[in-house]
Amino acid sequence: MTIRPYLQNISKKTGLGTVYYILDFLNPSTRETVQFKTTVKIEKKHWKKNKVSTSHPSHYELNDSLNTELQEIHKILNELRIRSIPINATNVKNYRQVEKEGEKDFISLAKEYIALRTDAKPRMIEKLVNLVTRLEDFSGGKKFYYSQITQKWINDFTLYLQQERPDHPNKNLRKSQQPSTIHKTFSFLRQILNHYNKLDIIDAKYKNLNYPRAFKQKQMVLLEDEIRTLLEFQPPRESLQRVKDLAMVQLFTGLRYSDAVKINKTNVFNGQLSITAVKTNQNIHIPLHPALKTLLEKYDYDLTPLMISNQKYNDHLKTLIQMSGIDSKAEHIYFENGKQVTTQRFKYELVGSHTFRRTFITNAIIKGIPLHVIQSITGHTTLKQLSEYVNIADAIKEQEMNKLNGLFSVG
Asked: How far apart are CA 307 and CA 209, in angstroms?
């Protein structure tokens, strides 16, 4: 290992540069370096033989300053020796990072950043707090430092975000994150990292890591023949029958789960179901489907007793779809070791509370119902929001046409 000072980042205009100490670790097969930025800035003409030349009026003071900073580097190396830690590039960087952070762990730094964001909207703060909560859970409550954020850490945290934890004591951590949400989670993480990098508290190595990229997950819907299969299925348990009935309400109305479980007598008049959406605060008016009317009469126009937790509803839906005999598969994309992996999974594994709203909208588009009519029923604020469902419907049409191609093929 060698330690030498170098003048770097020299301005073409002024000739002014910054002095760095570079630790060079040369091994038989590899070469690694660690840079220590000093406080000394001088013009190139005053830098001779790895020190400030006598041509500079403050050469004594500047060289003394460089020697002081060199002693600090040797202190780090001596500390590693005392702790019996091998002196290599990685260990020097890690120790230096802890020194820079003033022994503050990354979660503490993240919380300080959130406290500084007085300009942020409440929704942004909520997302940042959620990130910190997940980091605390992922680390098992133990402190971890920026230097531990490596490619393996990124991959492991991605895997953690993809996993469901139905029994977790914190209900906000029970659901897995979809790929698009995982991408956003890492964007919030990089927001924090960028802040401390600008303050020169952390280095920029995190910028060279591979983070999960944003992509659109192909959303799963039930096809017309699968809907018939589900309608004809008679659940063996009353609890599962109630789940089926609630799913059918969503299927006949396109309502979100949070809106469907709110339906009571006050929402029905003049042959229509009228409700204010929880998520968008939009007033929705839906014509009463005969099958929907029958279901509402069964529960005396009050579905509030059907309310269960969203997680339990999702779990029961998986059981319902599997028991009904729907065994087709759909595309599913996930991250593994930082890479996007595409696979096929059974629909009963992918079904969730939003599936029946998505199925209603997609099949309505396939049947040719105008988008503005669908929008008035679903409560979407813009037609653009329905474009995702149009794409799903088009893909299904193409899939069905391929079946016809096979039927009419000439051998």
From this structure: 44
